[in-house]
TrEMBL record:
Keywords: FAD, Flavoprotein, Oxidoreductase. Its EC number is 1.2.7.4. This is Carbon-monoxide dehydrogenase medium subunit. GO terms for molecular function: anaerobic carbon-monoxide dehydrogenase activity. It comes from Xanthobacter flavus.
């Protein structure tokens, strides 16, 4: 997209630690070089990180998905991208490596500003560690774009647990609503410990206003993005279902 004009290009594709998808304890370890297209077909991702699989068909087009990598998308951290926001919704940790060794950064601390992440100069993103979803988890993904494959005007995903008839530990992450992917903590607080009836969903939609701070841009006024985000959240909450 001509955002960068690097003098040196380093090909990461021969680093074996950045490849492959495997269960590691309670987490699914997704190598940074995993292609977008693999998130649609890899059985471990479908089983244990279903929100990522649900988002994948919305990322660009097949040609892009065959080349683009999950790590590349999360390293770039475009605030309009699906996968970075889903890392936030899933509570993933980023495995970052440099000359001084390896460290893991929770998604809540990783996205810092527009295209700015916790990756320091001299470091690379090696893998994503996603807490494996189980039978108690429910999730939903949706986005609104002018045309399928375009960057979304607004989008989001939810991962939560169903505890009896109520929602527990919800994580809601939206994209295209600010300079980073955004966690909707006020909306989460409205649904935690409650059954998702019409009143609760309406309260979460109202609370969302305090979670997001969209900017006006040439295509979409901020007020419209706020409205679309509220509508999207209602859709997501109504379609939350078992995802694993
Ligand atoms: C026409 C088009 C449409 C698109 N539509 C969408 C869309 O709808 N939704 C969406 O989410 N994305 C979309 N994308 C983006 C695309 O899906 C890729 O995620 C993105 O281009 C990154 O590609 P890449 O993995 O090849 O990374 P690169 O382009 O190679 O890298 C992106 C940036 O991250 C850095 N980087 C890459 N890997 C690492 C790493 N492991 N560690 C540290 N830094 C790293 C690079 O240095 C560079 O700065 C679109 C792209 C195009 C060209």
């Amino acid at each position: 997209m001509r955002l960068q004009a690097p003098q040196v290009l380093i090909d990461l594709s021969a680093i074996p630690e950045m490849r492959g998808v495997r269960l590691a304890g309670e987490n699914l370890r997704i190598g940074a070089l995993t292609r977008h297209a693999e998130t649609l077909t890899e059985p471990l991702i479908r089983a244990y990180a279903p929100l990522l699989a649900a988002a994948a068909p919305f990322v660009a087009h097949p040609a892009i998905r065959n080349r683009g990598t999950v790590g590349g998308s999360v390293a770039l951290a475009d605030p309009a991208s699906e996968f970075p926001a889903m890392m936030l919704a899933m509570g993933a940790e980023m495995e970052i490596s440099g000359a001084d060794g390896m460290r893991r950064v929770p998604a809540d601390d990783y996205f810092q500003d527009l295209y700015q992440t916790a990756i320091e100069p001299g470091e690379i993103l090696v893998a994503l560690h996603v807490p494996a979803a189980g039978p108690r988890h429910v999730c939903a993904f949706d986005e609104m774009a002018r045309r399928r494959g375009d960057y979304a005007m607004v989008g989001g995903g939810i991962l939560a647990e169903r505890d009896g008839g109520v929602i527990a530990n919800p994580r809601i992450a939206l994209f295209s609503v600010g300079s980073t992917p955004v966690r909707a903590r006020n909306a989460e607080a409205e649904i935690a410990g409650k059954a998702l009836d019409a009143d609760t969903i309406a309260a979460a939609q109202r609370a969302l206003d305090a979670d997001i701070d969209p900017l006006d841009d040439a295509e979409i006024p901020a007020a419209m993005r706020r409205h679309l985000a509220r509508v999207l959240l209602g859709r997501l909450l109504r379609k939350l279902e078992t995802c694993s």
